[in-house]
Design brief:
The chain has 315 residues and is α+β, with helices and mostly antiparallel strands. The protein is built from six helices and 13 strands. It has a five-stranded mixed beta sheet, with helices on one face. It has a five-stranded mixed beta sheet with strand order 4-10-9-6-7, covered by helices on one side.
Amino acid sequence: MDWFKQASTSAVKSDQVFFAVLALSFVFLVFITAMMLWFVYKYAKKRHPKAEQIDGHVGLEILWTGVPLVMFLAIFYYGWTNYDYMSTAPRDAMVVKVTARQWSWSFEYPNGKQTDTLYAALDRPMKLDVRSVDVIHGFFIPAFRMKIDALPGRTTNTWFHPTKVGAYDIECTVICGAKHALMLSKVVTVPEDEFKAWYFGDENAPAPGKNLPVVSEGHAVPPTVVKMRTAGCLACHSVDGRPMVGPTFKGLFGQPRQVDASGQTRSVVADEAYLRRAITDPMVEVVKGYPPTMPPHKLSEADVTEIVTYLKTLK
């Protein structure tokens, strides 16, 4: 399970703090419990039928005040130095833009490549600029012990230094809507040469990590579907007729639709012009019976044409 893996330097440091505090807590649990049992035995009523006044002890009072204070300061320092390490990305870290939307993640690299799976090079730091286009999401990689909120209208930052090759879960930790539980992705860590071959290759370069046991299912489907998943289309719309938050794409082209436009209900035909309007300006005509929650996506004209062409094939 990812919860028990240590796949980054921050995971190691976080676990060190956690287990140090856990061990200290266990020692004091045993000590305090033993002292309680000893006092119950020593000062039982049958041994002391008459209560006695016990005077204070200055040395003990200084001891049980000073020791917890020193321990608290030590724990604070230990935790703060690790927090500072995890908050300050190295200057040579690759900066990747992370975009959260209901209900998917997308990643944009400095060279303009976009994916629905986060790819990272082994032993190379990566900085993440995290934002949301709709509601608050929680970007969480359990194996890296890394979590940060994705906020609308604001960019938050975090970073990681991967230390093990593998595919690790990315989860959303904030209940963000009906499909919150399905807002999942992967971070795939591969050797640096494999990452560079993909990163500096053309758009048809094979995705790294294809030999790993767990990879994104998006690489087994047509490139247009991968692009639609990255843009967030398939978080709300199915291509096989399954009901979701939005209407299915299967059998959509050429069919009549009842839409709400400017407060009035009217019938339109889902031709190419309608599909383009629905993608670029979805709030103008909202399909009746579905919530007006689709955000406009920043797709290029070529991307829109490619997606519309693909939707025509879904009979």
